[in-house]
Amino acid sequence: MSDWLLAETFRSTCGEVRWGSFGPPGRDPVVLLHGTPFSSYVWRGVARALARRHQLFVWDMPGYGLSESIRARTYPWLRRAGSSPNYSRTGHSRSPW
Q1: What is the domain count for the chain?
Q2: Is the pTM of this model over 0.70?
Q3: How many CA atoms lie within 13 A of 72 on its CB side?
Q4: What are the pLDDT tens digits along the chain (97 aa)?
Q5: Quick check: helix, strand or coil at residue 53?
Q6: Is 40 part of any domain?
Q7: Domain that holds residue 30
Q8: Structural contact between residues 71 and 14, judged by C-beta atoms closer than 8 angstroms
Q9: How far apart (Å, rounded) are the C-alpha atoms in residues 76 and 71?
Q10: Residue 46 is assigned to a structural domain of this protein
Q11: Does 94 map to a domain?
Q12: Domain at 13, CATH number
């Protein structure tokens, strides 16, 4: 894992998702999920350690890292809420997941 390369791809409705696998095949699998606004690259140190004993899977969520950007989405209910004088927003993450 000298270079962080996600060589595999999966075509999704949000675009092309990049993913990779490290460690010995057939070992107990571990999937690492990154938060936003990051990419799988944040796991590189942990991945190196875990890959000694596990088959590791990492991926970049659509719109992050090496994956394609998410197509713009429109939400009619959000436009209606935004036109209200009492409109406010809150959120946990920019992720669509």
Answers
A1: 1
A2: no
A3: 1
A4: 557 889 999 998 888 999 999 999 999 999 999 888 889 999 999 999 999 999 999 999 888 899 997 654 444 545 555 555 555 444 445 545 4
A5: coil
A6: yes
A7: 8-82
A8: yes
A9: 16
A10: yes
A11: no
A12: 3.40.50.1820
